[in-house]
Specification:
Elements: H1 15-45, H2 52-79, H3 87-109
Helix pairs in contact: 1-2
Length: 110
């Protein structure tokens, strides 16, 4: 028998899931920037004694780790709310906003 799905309220993500998503996004962005900046550094100044691949990997790992750390913390802080709205409350607020907007537009046209 299939499990019934509740449509009235969306399921919240846990703090660990939010941190993981932020770390994944930050890591991807950081590694991309590390690739760009590391590639530029290798082209402009040379690879150095460790070779080009190791130098590029160091740039990518340090940039990716830094971005992942800060994005994981930032995503949790940004998405935390003290009093989340249910879907019925949200739809009620949206309909009130829409009716007020229509009233303002009608007053302007008069």
């Amino acid at each position: 028998m299939p499990v019934p799905i509740a449509h009235d309220q969306a399921q919240q993500q846990s703090v660990v899931q939010k941190m993981g998503m932020g770390a994944a996004m930050g890591g991807a962005v950081g590694m991309t920037l590390g690739f760009l900046f590391g590639g530029f550094a290798i082209i402009s100044r040379g690879a150095g004694p460790r070779g080009p691949l190791n130098t590029l990997a160091t740039y990518m790992a340090s940039s990716g780790g830094t971005f992942a750390f800060f994005m994981s913390i930032g995503s949790v802080i940004r998405t935390e709310s003290r009093n989340p709205l249910t879907s019925t409350q949200l739809s009620s607020l949206q309909s009130q906003w829409h009716s007020r907007r229509i009233d303002r537009l009608e007053k302007r046209s008069d």
